Amino acid sequence: MSFARITTLARLELTQRLRSVGWYVLLGVFVLLLIGITLLSFMVFSFQSEPNAGVYSIVVNFVLLLVVLVSPTLSGNAINGDREAATLAPVQVTAATTGDIMLGKLLAAVATGSIFLLIAVPFLLISMLGGGVTAGMLIVSLLVLLAEIIVVAAIGVGLSGLIARPLFSIATTYLAVAALVVGTLIAFGLGGTAIQSEARGYERPWDETTGEPVCDEWVEVNYNQPRFDLVWGFLAANPFVVLADATPTTFSHGYPNDLFGQVKVGVRLAQLPPEIERWDACENGWIESPTSQEQIEDTVPSWFVGLGLQALIAGGLFAGAWARTRTPARRLPPGTRIA
Asked: What pLDDT is stored for residue 146 in this prediction?
């Protein structure tokens, strides 16, 4: 493989895309949507007396939503589109190897998606005016957004090499992205509810004559409880969960004050197996539990698990397309026509 050939192929791919009028229309719609969501976010959080990262978290999540919606269109026909237009075979008979072609297509798809990310940066900076955002939050969220662009681009390029028709490969790329965004939530919810185990709890008995709790006794209560701790890996693979779990969280009195932290708490609690619960009517109700900040600090980050699963899926599809695009030209006799 050659870095010069990879960048040349990527530049040719980008030149074809940037010549299209539809590309600039797409960028214009993207900017208008960002303007709208930024204004609405500031209006929603204008009543807050203390600064928090609510505006920033909404804008970042919206940027991620737009990126995963747009990227499949830009990468889902990278290989089979050229094959259908009869422009792939002429490239394959040049000095460019299969690796050059595959990486050039991937680099072009990532660069195209990164243009949307660059456009979103000013809006992210403006949303930081809402307060409560640190430089670490900005840097980490930008890196996660870039990682998701690479994952979706690799899935799109991979499927475009495995599926012959561009229309079907683009649709399949959208289905794969939908499986990560929506399918993981469904699998987590249904899977955790379908797997249940018996749990125990304790509470004070009640005196039927006085209606007061009996404070020198405990009654054991058995019930079935869903086991979300056995299927939390599905939730970890969700791009929005990866973004929320990786981004640093700010806390107020031990509880998160932005959308990232609230999602992170939910994901971390899903890792915990059922514990014995106690309801003490003679004291203050539920036995005091740790704060959200303490729960986050005592559990394992899930973002690297989710990003690893996504990389495994994208890498497998990309490797399959690599093998499918490889030509036997080196083993053919000289002068054999291949296209």
From this structure: 92
